Amino acid sequence: MSNLIKLQNGTATIVAEDAWQIVRVPVGEVEVKKQAGKVVLFKLTGAESATPEQVAATVVPAGKVLLPLSVFLARRAEFASRLAAGEVGVWLETHELVETLVAAQAELNVFPLIAVFIERFADGRAYSMASLLRSRYGFKGELRALGDVLRDQLFFMKRCGFDAFDIRADRSAEDALASLQDFSEPYQGATVIEQPLWRRHAR
Hints:
This protein has helices spanning 52-57, 69-75, 80-84, 98-104, 125-136, 154-160, 173-179, 197-200; strands spanning 4-8, 11-14, 21-22, 34-35, 38-39, 65-68, 88-93, 113-118, 142-147, 164-166. By secondary structure, the protein is α/β, with parallel strands linked by helices. The chain has a single domain (4-10, 49-200), classed as Aldolase class I (TIM Barrel, Alpha-Beta Barrel), CATH 3.20.20. The protein has an 8-stranded mixed β-sheet with strand order 2-1-10-9-8-7-6-3. It has a two-stranded antiparallel ribbon with strand order 4-5. A hairpin with a 2-residue loop joins strand 4 (34-35) and strand 5. The longest helix has 12 residues, at 125-136.
């Protein structure tokens, strides 16, 4: 059993087996950045994700693959036929810009799956990215959260447009599944429910 939760027609279930293979670039040298004497934990928005050498050395297997944005951008001609066949998705890190993907591939709905990788749960940029993909750019396919995805985030991720959650390996998917019912009725409007509560219910 995987730790992947998917929402379909309003019902959340744990997926037994995931057909998508997550492709990663080879590990390179990690640069430690400091600010005011402290290590900066989050990559700055717009920072480079991989070197050209790492991108070129990335091995992409057959079948359905979820490519890093850097690999897709640099080698997309190589994957054109697989993209047309619905076998290519793309994943972004939280410091990467949704606009960069849109500039390269204006019609996002050619992707059956887009994912956002969250390196640390405290990085809130994933929520904004999901909202942009759904509301501004009209992405209709599966929007998945990867990485440091924890129980307490799921309800709010769902409100921003995520409909799949790859729970961190050391946590229980069953427990995380229950978190989607923590609140019966959200007050504010959001990506999935645009009107606030006071407009949805007659007094």
